[in-house]
Amino acid sequence: MQYCEGSRLIACPPMPMLKSILVASDLSSRSTPAVQRAVRLAEVTGAALCVLHVVEDDLLEDRMRHEIWSAEDYLTAQVASFGKPGACEVAVLAGHAFHVIGQEARTREADLIVMGAHRRQFLRDVFVGTTIERVTRTSGRPVVMANDGRGGPWRQVLIATDMSEASGQAARKAHALGLLDNANVTFVHGYAPITRQMMTHAGIPAERVHEEAEREFQATRRELGRFIQGLELGDLNYSARIIEGVGADAIAGFVQQAKPDLLVIGTRGLSGIKRVFLGSVAQDLMGSVEIDVLAVPPQG
């Protein structure tokens, strides 16, 4: 059972806030889509762009100087090959990558961090502990994981929602940054037909099971509609889909079916002891899907 509804939210739209972008590159092919995406966003929005590369701080002085010069030359040429952002700086700094990226994002008051996908390994796809995973869960800023090497505009945007405050914050932030402009936006909510499963297991007649399942489904549909309206996203065209299944697998399956350009997800905040997780759904999606992903942390 699926629900699909189109609508338009009517309100005064906020002014886009994307004024500063930080893109981190490790100079590998995985970072190329990130630099390309960041250059495009900077050109479209007029945001200031910083292209950052971090070298290890345990190199000998001569070697470090050579690494810095080489990286600066490489990134300057790469940016020029993708476009001409109005304000662009190439920065090469020494230190531990995720620490430096987070610090530079705070220093520059970056509205958005853009990074390439993590390194996927044969027969083993490890996401936890990678630089992008650590930046996403500790920087306190929205992070785009750029997978799409084409660098085209995000025309089809999918917003995954469990109707929590975290997923609502993700939608609001994407809209406020202007990332939903001129896009076809779809909210997708995973739905588990618990009543149907329980009644079927109890041997209740199929007709009664169907009636109760439909009632439960319609209640979820109304709840999702109220949730989206409550986000106050301005004059936004959108559709809403309710799909059977919950968690990352259900969303990933819908991503394969719908083939959006961008997936928007919310993440969890830091725990009291700093042993933090993005949240299993966000973590699993960022570790598996092969489209661009915008991960938005809770509002600080």
Automatic annotation (TrEMBL):
Domain UspA: 17-145, 154-297
Keyword match Oxidoreductase: no
Keyword RNA-binding among record annotations: no
Gene3D superfamilies: HUPs (3.40.50.620)
GO molecular function, one term: ATP binding
InterPro entries referenced in this protein's UniProt entry, alphabetically: Rossmann-like_a/b/a_fold (IPR014729), Universal_stress_UspA (IPR006015), UspA (IPR006016)
Recorded superkingdom: Bacteria
Chain ranges passing through the membrane: none
Family: Belongs to the universal stress protein A family.
Protein name: Universal stress protein
Native source organism of the sequence: Neoaquamicrobium microcysteis
